[in-house]
Amino acid sequence: MRWTFPPSVNPQTVAELSRSLSVEPLVAQLLVQRGISTFDEARLFFRPTLSDLHDPFLMKDMDKAVARIENAIESGENILVFGDYDVDGTTSVSMMATYLRSHYPHVATYIPDRYAEGYGISYQGIDYADDNGCTLIIALDCGIKSIDHVAYARQKGIDFIICDHHRPGNELPDAVAVLDPKRADCAYPYDELCGCGVGFKLIQAFGSKKGQTTDDLKPYLDLVATAIAADIVPMTGENRILAKFGLEVINENPRPGIKALIANARKSKLDITDVVFLLAPRINAAGRIRHGHHAVDLLTETDFLLAERYASEIETYNIDRKTLDKQITREALYQIEANDEHEHAATIVFQKDWHKGVIGIVASRLIETYYRPTLVFTKSGEKLAASARSVRGFDVYNALEACAEHLEQFGGHMYAAGLTLREENYPCFKQAFEKVVSETLHPDLKTPEQSVDAKIDLTDITPKFFRILKQFEPFGPQNMTPVFLTDNLFDTGFARQIGEDKKHLKLYVRQGDSGGIGAVGFGLGPKIDTVRNQSAFEGLYCIEENEWNGEVSLQLRFKDIRPSEIPG
Predict the structure, then answer these.
(1) Which one of 310, 317, 384, 448 counts the least CB within 10 Å of its CB?
(2) 39-70: b (≥16 Cβ within 10 Å) or e
(3) What's residue 276's pLDDT?
(4) CA-CA-CA-CA torsion for 512, 517, 521, 524, nearest 10 degrees?
(5) Do 429 and 498 reside in the same domain of the chain?
(6) In this structure, are 174 and 160 located in the same domain?
(7) Quick one: pLDDT at residue 514?
(8) What DSSP designation does 500 have?
(9) SS3 content of the chain, % helix, strand, coil (to 5)
(10) 360 in a domain, yes or no?
(11) Residue 464 sits in which domain range?
């Protein structure tokens, strides 16, 4: 693992911020490293309010989108809310449908089948709208590249409003409104919203015309926060505000479907990490194993007893998902070794009967073993479909774009993408992608990286310091949990391997004459010899609370350790 430090910050800026906020310089340094250098910026970071959200009408085409929905309601049109089958898509559809139904009854929902229709807007979905007399489709978390689909809908007299956050192509669909902050001609101040976030801006704009404030719309933020967490978008700006208040809703007054999922997860209070690892996989499991509309049924249900039943069914899907995930990962690892591809620049594996619903998870699992850009293919109808995942610092979307001549369709982000191609093109694509990665992947990116926020001593870790760190939450990309480096550490004789196959490390450490502190290192069990026999070592860690027998104390959660460079 590579340990990297952020660029040095201006010491005068740190000193001025420390003075204006009355906080210690270490806290000010952490803030400046996050781009926060003034009192007002710190106020927004620590004490955001919903009124700090941007005016939704700053987004290109927002006025057109609101006007078209108002016209549809006045004319008594049937509206179809369409979204992808993942967490961002199903939460978007659930939010938009629930909100519109609070104003108007003729609103239907549609989630494409992952296997029969694939990602994004489908002709089958448009035909469904036509068959049911829908003349307006609001597409969420998809549609930015659906030129032909939107044209097909127009021929049938169906208008589109697109709410997307993916990168547009050279041409935009001929929709009534295309809401996407990543549009080159869109001057919206924040372009990192997820699909559900863009959808929320639409209901914020529509609601403002009805006299509603953002506080009135707060009950919808449990869905927005779930989408932000699941889609791994930057936890900055509006995303951080929406996630913060969405977590409040999740923990204080969630919708019945979320409440039922929390009950199944057996945890009373959730933070953003819990949303990522407890809520999101369960919502995703519906679309992966059965159908994404099961998630929409759950998230739009108002009867808690019925929501509990839906949640129980989804829990079963999640168990099935875990079984498939483990099985396919084993088969993929065997394939890499059998084909002697463990030294390649990229991982590309294919088996026609792998379950399409879990290949994205498998791609992430393979990166844990072979740290490099990874594509997992399976057969999908007459074509091959793949999920792509990348390593930190490498843009897999750009790499796919360089191989576009071999692809039928692709879309996504820097670190995650999806694609389809004809089976006969697979060998050429595999060769081309391997070539692109081998020529563009910097050697440093072949090793996992852990960035370090600051070097500190154990004496810096106080309850007051931890309370301030807690206010940096919610954490996520570009606002990650602070990671600290401390050197010249010693174990006090308690080091032991714990867990299945002794994978993890439990220890109690000290530095010099300082008092000791408990620590755990997940996955660091094999490094026990580094800390034994009074060997000095240095480690990277986060600070967290540990509750044991009703007692709460601070502990270190080590991310990596190595022999200390300072003699003990």
Answers:
(1) 448
(2) eeebebbeebebeebbebeebbbbeebbebbe
(3) 92
(4) 30
(5) no
(6) yes
(7) 74
(8) G
(9) 45, 20, 35
(10) yes
(11) 452-568
